[in-house]
Design a protein that fits this description.
de novo design (two linked rop proteins); single chain; 4 helices
């Protein structure tokens, strides 16, 4: 692996998603939802942190492992966005950008994993 994690497009999208989610959580409806806010923040931060951590091993198998964890965190963020809408903390319109971005990231992670798997020699 010659690239630094900061150069990965999926990492950059993860940063964008974190910004969008943190901005969403500024909504007054989330004011008293401390546990909920903390959980979604930890999940969205986990996306980029796992990409970064996995890349530092300079080993495709290890990176794949961390990318899968990142993908799981991405699903957790989506689930919490759905819950926030269902609990009337925000509207569908308010979560739309973050929801779509999380799907893109998940797809990008899947493609990255497939690519790395193709480079592993048995």
């Amino acid at each position: 692996m010659t690239k630094s994690f900061e150069e990965f497009e999926v990492y950059q999208k993860g940063i964008l998603l974190a910004k969008i989610v943190f901005k969403l959580l500024d909504n007054k409806a989330f004011e008293r939802e401390y546990g909920f806010k903390d959980q979604i923040k930890r999940a969205v931060i986990s996306i980029t942190n796992n990409i970064a951590e996995g890349s530092e091993y300079n080993n495709n198998r290890q990176l794949i492992r961390y990318l899968k964890i990142s993908k799981g965190s991405c699903a957790e963020v989506r689930s919490m966005l759905i819950l926030s809408r269902e609990l009337d903390l925000c509207s569908q319109t308010e979560i739309e950008e973050s929801y779509k971005t999380s799907i893109e990231i998940s797809q990008n992670l899947s493609n990255f994993i497939k690519y790395l798997n193709s480079k592993i020699k048995d």
